[in-house]
């Protein structure tokens, strides 16, 4: 990237860092982002990402996934996850941990296991080691990620094939035994728009988890969206209300709103506003480190900063919405409604990028 002193100044100057600060003033828990390891040598990017007034929470985009933490059986590697966790610690940011059990970025030695007991032992060892390594450092863990299909069936992944739905309840139980203070989340996409088959099945699954005596504290809505296709404010509110009956916290965990450069500003603002209703969310990332351009060529404008670290109109829309939420006294109502603010863009990013 070309060195641009003016942009650099604007990043560290008077207009720097305010999303997390405003989110908290509006009664939310945090406004966060995901950071991936290849970005760690980019000082311009890091200046934004580790500004705690901008982002109160960091998520390792890939470093804590199974393929990074236990690439071969019994060999645990934490370098990638630790690099992000250490940045968060140094900057005084909270750590949101992602993810323990997911069918993607899963090493072949796991996906080739069909025996129930063997799979159960593998999951136990994985969670005990990984959640044990980060014990006390994770505000929350995405314990299980993307276990449902859009049509409401359980995703037929290697863990499900070996153990049925028990793999989910087992994972939550082991996660709680290992790190009793972490908020344990189920995280998925396409569960923002009330009330599709996937949301209904997710609710049934959460009930199954609870009925089995396993702890679950939060539901993460990934919030991948597209300008013109975003769920309405009413739909999101309804979904969050349904989820809030089951768990303590609901968070938008990976928000991005993709669109082409040509999409006009008005539509962009409308999509942002739709997402920023009442309770929570946020987003972040410059296009450079988003997963969107690999998956959806030409629609890489999903984040709040452009690739030269200029804040986009959507950034300023969010600031305005958070400011008015704060002055409208949302604090009180947000505390009553058990809704956590989150916003991590691109946590799924390299997942998808790597898969391509
Ligand atoms: C999901 O559940 C809601 C509320 O019970 C219901 O109105 C809706 O029709 C269901 N959707 C599907 C696709 O089954």
From TrEMBL:
Record protein name field: Beta-xylanase
Upper lineage is: Eukaryota, Fungi, Dikarya, Ascomycota, Pezizomycotina
Metabolic or biological pathway, per its Swiss-Prot or TrEMBL entry: Glycan degradation; xylan degradation
Q: Which reaction does it catalyse?
A: Endohydrolysis of (1->4)-beta-D-xylosidic linkages in xylans
Its family?
A: Belongs to the glycosyl hydrolase 10 (cellulase F) family.
Principal localisation = secreted
Q: Where is the signal peptide?
A: 1-17
Q: Recite the UniProt keywords alphabetically.
A: Carbohydrate metabolism, Glycosidase, Hydrolase, Polysaccharide degradation, Secreted, Signal, Xylan degradation
Query: Boundaries of each GH10 domain copy?
Result: 13-321
Q: What is any one GO biological process for this UniProt entry?
A: xylan catabolic process
